[in-house]
Write a structure and sequence with these properties.
By secondary structure, this protein is mostly helical. Helices cover 45% and strands 0% of the residues. The protein starts with 17 loop residues before the first helix and ends in a 5-residue tail after the last helix.
C-alpha cells in the first residue's frame, strides 16, 4: 500500500493540520526511540485517572 503523507489508508482523505500532526508524530517516535516502548498493559491496569 503506497500512502502519501496526509492520506489515511489510501482513501485520499487529508488530515487536518498536516504539519502539526507530523510534528506530534515525529516527537512521539523520537520519545519511543529514546525511552523504548514502555511497560506491558498489565502494569497500568487499575491506575486509570
Amino acid at each position: 500500500m503506497n500512502l502519501k503523507f496526509g492520506q489515511v489508508m489510501g482513501k485520499g482523505m487529508e488530515l487536518p493540520d498536516k504539519e502539526l500532526t507530523a510534528g506530534i508524530i515525529s516527537a512521539a517516535i523520537a520519545v519511543h526511540k529514546a525511552l523504548g516502548p514502555g511497560f506491558l498493559e498489565s502494569v497500568y491496569e487499575g491506575h486509570e485517572c
